[in-house]
Write a structure and sequence with these properties.
mainly alpha, two-stranded parallel ribbon
Length: 210
Amino acid sequence: DDDDPITLKSNFIGSLCETIIGGRYGLTPIQKAIIDRCVRLVYQPYMEHMAQINSVSNERITIAPEYMPTLIDFYGLLLEQPEPEAQNIALSLELYCTGSLDTFAHKTNVKTSKRFVVYDIKDIGAGMKEMGLQICLDSVWNKMITNKKKGKRTWFYIDEFYLMTQKECSAKFLQQIWKRARKWNGIPTGITQNVEDLLRSPEARTIIQN
């Protein structure tokens, strides 16, 4: 459901975990269920806070970054779950939550309220490139939703587009953005010189057909 932010967030975190955990067959049904449970638990206080704010505010507030849970909070909830699968997911995420690659595990210090925002993942490092890409795309998607509720359009450009479609997880995430963007006043545009490489991706072909 595009109107349920928790469902969207659960799908995103699931995709992120699938990228990190890897494996030939993706996440198991048990892993998906545990991730969905923990996402809903970790966002419950935040959603209650947002409902309380909007109950006394004349202006509908769609996001409160200072109260938003982090990947570390999600990791902590995984450790509290009784299933051994939850412990395995947490172990796979440890490097990115409390380890040396914890760049995206904390509250952001990037100001995204400007009219023109650029995400550059060129120097992010091979170990975090796909994860970083998905987090940037999720940030763009959240901005698109916020702008829609303000009656604004979001122009979204991706340079070297074919590179973004080489990994299945990020390609599928982009495919979903392209399918949903029009409904949310989004105008996504891919820029590439490598059309042949782009056409090798089923997700990219679907995007073009859209």
